[in-house]
Amino acid sequence: MRGTDVDTPSRPARRSRSAPRTVRREPRGFGRTVVGVAILAVMLFPLYWMLNVSLQPAGAAVATPWFPVDLSLDGYATAIREQSGNLGTSLVVGLGSVVVSLVIATPAAYAMARFRLGRWVEVLLFGVLITQMVPGIVVANALYSAYSDLGLLNTVGGLILADSALGVPFSILVMRAFMRGIPGSVVEAAYVDGAGPVRAFVSVVLPMSRNALVTAGLFSFLFAWGDFLFALTLTTTETVRPITLGLYTYIGSFVNDWSPIMATAVLSSLPAIVLLVVAQRYVAAGVTGGAVK
Predict the structure, then answer these.
(1) What domains are there in the chain, each with its CATH number?
(2) What percent of the chain has pLDDT above 70?
(3) At what angle do helices 259-284 and 210-225 cross, to 10 degrees?
(4) Does residue 154 contact residue 235 with C-beta atoms inside 8 Å?
(5) For residue 88, what are the CA distances in angstroms to 46, 85, 146, 194, 240?
(6) Whether pLDDT at 97 is above 80
């Protein structure tokens, strides 16, 4: 009734959502930090020692100090003068292996990820995995016999094909996993706009799979750049010699002076380090981020 005061039970005041909450932060484990720094120091010490020895003057490799006091670039001058051709060969072989691996693996991975192939997909994946399990020495011996008949020994093209045998299966596995995460609605929208399968693949799928392409290309280059077994088996002259084999034969010539050897090792490590630093954000980024709006 009007004019009558009705007592209503008082409700407890709700806690404001904007009220600050006390967050308990666990103290950082000092022991874990020390252990992590120690492990990192042990892992990076060979790289530091390689750089340290490469900066030593000639004849100082026997009693190398812990820190490069008397810096000398004579080792790098010798390495560049005598190993620049091998570095160029490795660069050409690595880039060629990337191109061959991506050209073959990209459409194969897309077909296995998007098309309905039934149980054939599992059979193909099993075959790809089997190729990754075969020892490299077995493949190298088989390739030597075939290359001898085809005239591909001591050729850059032969090394590219051999190194691509490692890059193609790995690239298929990586890119298929990435392409399976691409929303089907994006490809269907391209079909609605009038694009065919090839146009949708080139204009839609490939740009969205940029991170997968960078990842597969990076590892294909690293496989070819660090290859030693195929280089040792399929090259018998000095005309075509990658840097890994050049460094192996270099030790016999400068066994009394390790400065040029370590300088060559530093130069051969630079391309891999630069690529890993540049491409790490593409490897860590998501494939379909921002694709569907």
Answers:
(1) 84-284 (1.10.3720.10)
(2) 83
(3) 160
(4) yes
(5) 25, 5, 26, 45, 10
(6) yes
